[in-house]
């Protein structure tokens, strides 16, 4: 904590307080107070024979203000201590704004030494050069600063890296999973279609003749196209004895493999499914597992347990005969 107080041109006392100084790595973390004083010659406070701007009438407690650069922090601090400074304030180099660094000064330990930003340093410098007396009080603030910053940055970077990596890995896993499922599903669909084709070939096909009961009444309708049967219509008889137009039922069976009226499964009824399984044409199933865990998923290739779905709800009920 840095507190500055001085008189401005209007003879008003200006008091400023900020959390803007950082103790050096080897500094005594302690309170210090005094009049800010510049070196007489080198503003960077270097050199063996450095002298500070003091005379017999100067107040006894003073704090050295020097700029960063030209020599080590230790040299600057030692030179100021030799002259009797209570503390040393080093302001950062040009172009660094108000940033500070965590000074290392192993050859000059146990001295109250802080770094302040360049802007603040230059501001004080101007006041001092105008002959203003600036008092500074250095107080120990809350324990944070470059040490914490560095390690926090470290910790945050690592945490960020882990989170990012985990997210990407998860995303890749999910995508691969979806792609795999889709492929298995498509393969299963193709398989079922070819089985349905085989089954369709085995179904009885009739051409309706005059005198057939289906043509006798308008009440006999093809449940797919809702049209009454006419003489000469080619119809397919399913294993459940329900009949439909051949042209109507074949695309339906390719997609759904069940009778639109009674939901009977033609693959099961004709035993086509069993046969194709025996021939070993089933595509292989890969079970993806996580080490030490249970099987994550297993995709059934022919989910015969799934009830048939209809786009048109009317197929789920017997057509009304009136
Ligand atoms: Zn029809
Ligand atoms: Zn049927």
UniProtKB/TrEMBL annotation:
One of its GO terms (cellular component) is membrane. Residues 222-263 form the RING-type domain. GO terms for molecular function: zinc ion binding. The chain crosses the membrane at residues 151-173. Residues 309-322 have a biased composition (Basic and acidic residues). Residues 298-322 are annotated as: Disordered. It is found in: Membrane. It comes from the Eukaryota. This is RING-type domain-containing protein. Keywords: Membrane, Metal-binding, Transmembrane, Transmembrane helix, Zinc, Zinc-finger.
